[in-house]
Each structure stands twice: as structure tokens, then as C-alpha cells.
Design goal:
Elements: E1 13-15, H1 17-20, H2 22-32, E2 38-42, E3 51-57, E4 60-66, E5 72-76, E6 90-92, E7 95-97, E8 104-106, E9 111-113, H3 126-129, E10 133-139, E11 142-146, H4 154-158, H5 161-165, E12 173-183, H6 187-192, H7 200-203, E13 217-221, E14 224-228, H8 251-265, H9 272-278, H10 281-284, H11 293-308, H12 319-325, E15 328-331, E16 335-340, E17 343-352, E18 355-368, E19 379-382, H13 392-407, E20 415-417, H14 424-436
Parallel strand pairs: 12-19
Antiparallel strand pairs: 1-20, 2-11, 3-4, 3-6, 4-5, 5-10, 7-8, 8-9, 10-11, 12-18, 13-14, 14-15, 15-16, 16-17, 17-18
Helix pairs in contact: 8-9, 9-11
The protein binds FE2/S2 (inorganic) cluster (FES) and fe (ii) ion.
Length: 440
């Protein structure tokens, strides 16, 4: 019996080469990363003058900092003298001093010291010795950079993203935790594990008994895209219809199980406050209330708990707005987010050096905290998952990644067969990626 999943036909597909070849990675380096707005950090990481973050992408490194006047600026992290990188990681500085020959730059990127400048006979101009500026924009508390000297604004670049996601007030969220993983897969393999819901039933079976309907739909939004559960008829707290189980005897228990599982296994999207509030369901809602009411009531309990702490839920974030936005967004090219009233999960993927089989993957849990109650930022880095855990749900996702990367190199695998209903975010991603690379 013959079987081939990779015959030539019109089904949407993505070439395996796009994930595994060094040439494709090199094209991304030349034609993608220098031409897109991308998230370098969040504003709270550079809340005070002199605080800086270096953002490395491809062969480029960018310093993002806040000046004494409070402005956010970014410039290339390279000394104009002989090319030494000026800074690494994150920190706080009054000036950036090159460790090679001592040239110094202020927070505006202006050169303030050259050793023995007379040697150049007065020929050194500001344009020669100042750091090269990079464009900066902010949205939702994120600091974006764009290496193009001019071009579309961040607002134009984001297209419909703010229309759908502004109501969540990402700018009022803060890091609950910050995890950076070095993974053995292409950056797109890592990202794509988080821009479709098709994998959930198999990869995360533990959530099926109470997640409601896990069947998703997905749509392009320009070069960005989203998925949601616009056709669902099964409320959260119920078993997924895939399990073919009877409706639950007590829907409240399923809803509490949902919040507990996310708190124990992910610690993201929902806050600890949401979980504690959901436990109050048993007291405020009678057993046998109409289907769906347990989840809505749990959300209202979460809202009241947030209000009691002085932060509340975002005013514009209503159930109607949430239904419109859907559950998940891909922000082209390398970020994804799952927003909620009280927080959000955020992902950022990048290649790691010149190896198409490796990536650097950041996972950020963002939560609405009452001012002054946010935890101190601790950036945790795992250079390998060996002996480490990112929580059960993410561990399940990560377990697929290196195996996908290996599988894509099989001589029997030429292209990925992407689900046209549930994996449109991935289809749209590659369509626009290939346009940037001038392959389409
Ligand atoms: S390379 Fe920076 S001062 Fe020489
Ligand atoms: Fe997952």
C-alpha cells in the first residue's frame, strides 16, 4: 500500500527547506529582519534614564535606552572606530564606553570622547563618530525598533492589531515571569507551536475535560493573523466535544479546574487573583445555573477581585470585544500573544546565530498588577531544557519542537501540510515571509 503526504497538489503547503536550510536563514537575515518593526523589549525594562537592553537579531545588535529627558532611543550596538560591540545584555549606564580604545558615547548616542582626536587632523565629523540611530516606536508597553532609516510608521506596520488588542491595555501589564529558552529548532518551528490551536487536543490532553470546544478557526489580518473559537457551542467548564462525554453534573467544578490547571501548569494569561476568585464560584452561583454561566460568573469574580486591589479590568475589554479579537494573535514576523482581561501570554522567536536548527525563544507572562505590587523582573535563561521545566503545558509544546526539526529533514518530507481552517496564521505567516524574501 502506498502513501505519500507530500505529493504535488494545490493543498496549502510550506517547503521543508524554509525551516532547515542555511540559505533561507541567510535570506531572512538580509531581507526580513532589517525591514520589519520588531519588539526589542518592554518599556518597564528601561523605566529610568540610562537603563538599557541590547536586542540581538541576525548579525545586528541594537541598544535601546532611555535618555535623561525620558525619551526612548535606539542605536546600533557597534563602535564606529573599529567595530567593537559596546554593550551586552541589560544594565544601567551613564555613558557607553568602548572597552577597546576608550571612545565614549552619551545616552543620545553622541560621541563625547575620542582618544587622541588630533591624530585625525580635524577630519572626524559627528556623522563619523556618533552611534547610528535606529527608529523606535511603542505600542502596548512594548518598545519596537526598525533598522530602516525611513519607511512605514509602527502604526501602519501593525495594521489592525491595535484595533483588536488595544482594549486589553497591554501597556498596563507587567512581567509576572520572563523566560528565555535556547531551543533545538528553527525560530519558525518554535513560534508556530503557539499560533494554532490544532495541536491542543493531542499535545495538551489534560485540559480537554474542562476546556469546552477546542475546535478553532483562524484568519489573516493583513500580514498578522488570529485564531479564535467563533463557532463554539460548548462552554468552558464542559468537556471538549472530542471526548464525547455527557455534559458535566456541575459545570462550576470544570471552570475551577480550568483556572487551577492554568495556574499550576502555566502561570500565565490568568493571574493568581483570577484563580483565587474563581474558587468563589461555589458560594455565589447555584448548581444547575444555565450552561455557560459558571465561566461568565468566574470572570466577574475576577473583575471584582481586580477592582478590590485597585487595578480593575480594562474598561474596553468586554466579552463582545474579546469575541471579536479571538484567542490568539500572530504579530508578524516573530511574536504571538494570547490576551486575557487580566494578563497575557507573549512569545518572541529569533534565530540563534547562523544555525537554522537553533533559536532563542522568549516567553513572557504579563499580568495587570495594582501599582507597586508587581514582582521584581527576573530574566531566567535556560540554555537547554535538559533538567529544566517551563511548566507542564509549555513543556508539552517544547517536546514537539526538536522532533519536528529532525522530522523535517527526512527525505520523505518535502513540505508541511498546513490546516487551512485552523492553521491560517501559519499559512499567512509564510506567505508574507516569502514576500519579504522576494520569493513570491
Ligand atoms: S573599537 Fe571602540 S574605541 Fe576602538
Ligand atoms: Fe500548546
Amino acid at each position: 500500500m502506498g502513501f505519500s503526504a507530500n505529493v504535488e497538489n494545490d493543498l496549502p503547503g510550506i517547503n521543508a527547506e524554509d525551516y532547515i536550510s542555511r540559505d533561507f536563514l541567510d535570506q531572512e537575515k538580509r531581507k526580513l529582519w532589517p525591514k520589519v518593526w520588531q519588539i526589542a523589549c518592554r518599556e518597564e525594562e528601561i523605566a529610568h534614564p540610562g537603563e538599557f537592553v541590547t536586542y540581538d537579531i541576525g548579525d545586528d545588535s541594537i541598544i535601546v535606552t532611555r535618555t535623561k529627558s525620558g525619551e526612548i532611543l535606539a542605536y546600533h550596538n557597534v563602535c564606529p572606530h573599529r567595530g567593537r560591540r559596546l554593550a551586552s545584555g541589560c544594565g544601567k549606564a551613564n555613558q557607553f564606553r568602548c572597552s577597546y580604545h576608550g571612545w565614549r558615547f552619551d545616552l543620545e548616542g553622541r560621541n563625547v570622547y575620542v582618544q587622541d582626536p588630533h591624530d585625525w587632523g580635524g577630519e572626524l565629523g559627528e556623522a563619523d563618530i556618533d552611534l547610528r540611530r535606529v527608529r523606535v516606536g511603542t505600542w502596548g508597553g512594548f518598545v519596537f525598533i526598525d533598522m530602516r532609516a525611513e519607511g512605514e510608521s509602527l502604526t501602519d506596520y501593525l495594521e489592525t492589531v491595535p484595533d483588536y488588542l488595544d482594549p486589553y491595555e497591554y501597556e498596563h501589564m507587567r512581567y509576572r515571569w520572563y523566560l528565555t529558552l535556547h531551543l533545538d529548532c528553527n525560530w519558525k518551528v518554535a513560534l508556530e507551536a503557539f499560533i494554532e490551536n490544532y495541536h491542543v487536543a493531542t499535545t495538551h490532553p489534560q485540559i480537554l475535560p474542562f476546556v469546552g470546544d477546542d475546535y478553532s478557526q483562524s484568519y489573516a489580518q493583513g500580514k498578522h493573523a488570529h485564531f479564535g473559537f467563533w463557532e463554539t457551542k460548548t462552554p468552558l467548564g464542559y468537556p471538549s466535544p472530542r471526548l464525547k462525554r455527557q455534559p458535566p453534573e456541575d459545570e462550576r467544578v470544570g471552570v475551577i479546574d480550568f483556572f487551577r490547571t492554568y495556574e499550576e501548569q502555566l502561570k500565565a494569561m490568568f493571574s493568581e487573583r483570577d484563580y483565587k476568585a474563581a474558587q468563589g464560584l461555589m458560594d455565589v452561583l447555584p448548581k444547575g445555573a444555565p450552561p455557560g454561566s459558571a465561566f461568565f460568573t468566574a470572570v466577574e469574580l475576577g473583575r471584582k477581585a481586580a477592582e478590590a486591589e485597585g487595578i480593575g479590568y480594562p474598561e474596553g475589554a468586554t466579552f463582545e470585544q474579546m469575541a471579536k479579537a479571538g484567542a490568539n494573535w500572530h504579530i508578524f514576523p516573530n511574536c504571538a500573544t494570547l490576551p486575557w482581561f487580566d494578563g497575557a501570554l507573549f512569545y518572541r522567536a529569533r534565530p540563534d546565530g547562523d544555525d537554522p536548527d537553533k533559536c532563542v525563544f522568549d516567553i513572557w507572562s504579563l499580568v495587570r498588577y495594582a501599582p507597586g505590587t508587581e514582582p521584581p523582573l527576573e530574566r531566567v535563561v535556560y540554555t537547554s531544557m535538559e533538567g529544566n521545566s517551563a511548566g507542564q503545558i509549555l513543556d508539552q509544546d517544547i517536546a514537539n519542537m526538536a522532533e519536528v526539526q529532525k522530522g523535517m529533514k527526512s527525505r520523505a518530507f518535502r513540505r508541511a501540510l498546513v490546516n487551512p481552517v485552523q492553521e491560517m496564521e501559519i499559512i499567512n505567516f509564510h506567505h508574507h515571509l516569502r514576500r519579504y524574501l522576494e520569493l513570491e
